[in-house]
């Protein structure tokens, strides 16, 4: 284990021998850090944070800090759990949960750029990119392979579907469905994430099917409930099924098309 002599490490931690910890970093009690992880200088990892394998946490990041929730009991034992192969660039801030039974959760192979903030009780999937200065409120759920551009603000309790793309400076106040692009302040849907779908191996047929589904929802003149019923009656595909399920499970409502 390579720990700089100026680092402060609580004795009640579980740190794999291969972990590197830089100068002036603080690791509190109950923290676990998995194999091959690199913790740079000036990082603070708060109590009960669990970090998986091969994560890289850059200078000045703060992981597992108290929730920014005025009703939170600071004596409550809550957690932040992080998967494997994530990158947290300089100044990333992630709050631990408010609920002892359910941690703030970050999956694997996500890339968080400088000064991004992830609020308490958020749940991230895998392979997401969060660009500099994005702010994500509490209880937000982000799927897989989502691209969140710079200075995006996401309202608490929103859901972001798989393969969605949020354009720079977007203000997200409702759910963003899978495969869609959201832009504006407040944001609306402006199309499908064609570039992201291509990059992730979606065939031209799959892209046409997704585009057709959104035409039925937004341009058929039907209300959303009827449009979803019509889509469900057609010969299904996994992509259309994902869109239907996302709309039906929405509690905040889904962004409308511009």
CATH topology of the largest domain: UDP N-Acetylglucosamine Acyltransferase, domain 1
* Low-pLDDT residue spans: none
Number of helices: 4
The count of domains is: 2
Helix content: 10-25%
Our measurement of the CA-to-CA distance between the termini, rounded to an integer number of angstroms, reads 54 Å
Which features would summarize this protein structure in a list?
nine-stranded parallel beta sheet; UDP N-Acetylglucosamine Acyltransferase, domain 1; eleven-stranded mixed beta sheet; Udp N-acetylglucosamine O-acyltransferase, Domain 2; 4 helices; 258 residues; 17% helix; alpha/beta; 2 domains
Notes on the protein architecture:
The termini are far apart. Helices cover about 15% and strands about 25% of the residues. The chain is of the alpha/beta class and about 260 residues long. The chain has an eleven-stranded mixed beta sheet with strand order 1-4-7-10-13-16-19-22-25-27-28. It folds into two domains: about 1-140, UDP N-Acetylglucosamine Acyltransferase, domain 1 (3 Solenoid), CATH 2.160.10.10; about 200-250, Udp N-acetylglucosamine O-acyltransferase, C-terminal domain (Udp N-acetylglucosamine O-acyltransferase, Domain 2, Up-down Bundle), CATH 1.20.1180.10. The protein is elongated, with a radius of gyration of 20 Å. The mean pLDDT is about 95.
